[in-house]
Fold this sequence. Notes:
The structure holds 2 protein chains of 2 kinds.
Chain A: E1 12-13, E2 21-27, E3 33-34, E4 50-54, E5 58-67, E6 78-85, E7 90-95, E8 110-117, E9 129-135
Antiparallel strand pairs in A: 1-2, 2-3, 2-4, 5-6, 5-8, 6-7, 8-9
Chain B: E1 6-13, H1 24-39, E2 49-52, H2 61-69, E3 76-79, H3 85-98, E4 104-111, H4 140-155, H5 159-173, H6 187-192, E5 195-198, E6 200-201, E7 211-219, H7 220-225, E8 233-242, H8 257-270, E9 279-281, H9 287-296, H10 305-310, H11 327-330, H12 335-350, E10 364-371, E11 375-382
Parallel strand pairs in B: 2-3, 2-4, 9-10
Antiparallel strand pairs in B: 1-7, 1-8, 4-7, 5-6, 8-11, 10-11
Helix pairs in contact in B: 1-2, 3-12, 4-9, 5-9
Bound molecules: zinc ion (ZN).
Amino acid sequence: MSEETLTIKPYLKAPAGGDPYLEGQKCSACGAISLKKRMACASCGARDTVAPVKLANTGKLHSFSIIHRAFPGIEVPFVSAIADLDGGGTIKTNLVGIEPDPDKITLGMDVTVDFQTAPRKDAEGNEYLTFVLKPAA
Amino acid sequence: MGSEDVYITGIDMIKFGKFLDRSIASLGAEAALGAMDDAGVTINDIQALYSGNLMAAAGMVGQQIQEEIGQTGIPAINVSNACATGATALREGYIAIRAGIYDTVLAVGVEKLAGAGMLGGGGGAPKGLHPEGLLGSGSMPCVFAEAGMAHAKEYGTTFEQFAMVSVKNHHHSTMNPKARYQIETPLEEVMNAEMISYPNTKLMCSANVDGSAAAVLMSEKEMKRRGLQGQAVKIRASVLTTDPWTDRDEVMPDVNTCTRNAASQAYEMAGVGPEDLDLVELHDCFATAEVLHYENLQLCGDGEAGKLIDEKQTWIGGRIPVNLSGGLLSKGHPIGATGIANQYEIAMHLRGQAGKRQVEGAKIGLAHVIGLGTCCGIHILEGPSA
Ligand SMILES: [Zn+2]
């Protein structure tokens, strides 16, 4: 029986015996960083120039929205947030550890990436590792 | 042969609404017949049909429309390109005439969307755990809220300024009998409406409706042969772009760059600048989006969109009226029809037939749509009196 950790996205890595991290795909020709593996670099079209790179767990809040109406089964309100990570790469996930109030959330503020078990399971009952953003301490 | 100017000689849209007991084809056919009547042609004059529809794209909607309006054996091209579907269908017809292949074509856009609910983000994941609500939200109200908040980060744009867009477009729609809604929505009502995805309240989200629009396109030679100079609207620019790679692309659909690129291409193609425009119909799928596109379309400088709203420059009677039809927020957004319906609005003004909301002496107008995926379509039209 494999005890490999399932992750919510292929770019979330959970190495056995190590800390989880986010992995980007960086092009050595143009420097672009994406989350998804592609046939060629989406930015410059070069082939065989893209290699995995470990992304930082710190960054800045670029934008957000507070979701009050969602699809059935999804708890609201929650904060959907986009963060530019230090050193490159942009991610989107829930911003937690802060009130879902536009007056409490500061655009451009420092945030950190935190890894945790997702509060839902998939249709087959499997648990997943996911990631969230938190205001930097 | 080729490179002849292309004209819209007939155009129509149905009143947008909710038509539970009608087929997609019958809605499309009604606009198609209206456009052909407007141009004074019949189906026997049409050499090709370009049919735009998104949600039933696998169903050969063009051929279904032919069953309603006449099966003459002409080619039907079924087009699907997100919210730019209608604009893309019309543009394909434009290209064929420019190429010298046809003299007279028909473009139709149609959608049944009433009661569709919130779009995006809810689709089934192919496998694994669906990320909605865990990795933020992929719903359309959220995606466009996040686009708007990035503008707020840069320029301090406020909730009230975003909301004012909706006040304006609802006001404009009270003068458009073909809009889905004709109701004033004061600022407090917009801001206090159910919050969907901050800062977009329910009244700041486009209305899911059923609707259709259609246009007859002709080469200059054919337009003149039929003596339609008095009503022919010239297509001075027809542009389609996709989004080039930008650093946040994967998590934040970039509605700005493709619009900026399309706008600069369109102005160059038309040989006009934003200062020459008398009116604009732009893609206000959410109130936040309209603010971004003021700058993307160069209606003002970067960072000046909030001021444009505050000074009511984009209201009827303002320096550059935007979405006089009521926009997607109040006229409604039947996806496949939207990119032809916005050209209908421009054409009515250029022909002096826009009724109470008429921009006096309008000569040049711009119609813009954007579809996530992502694509942007822009048409610049010139009226018969220009
Ligand atoms: Zn590259």
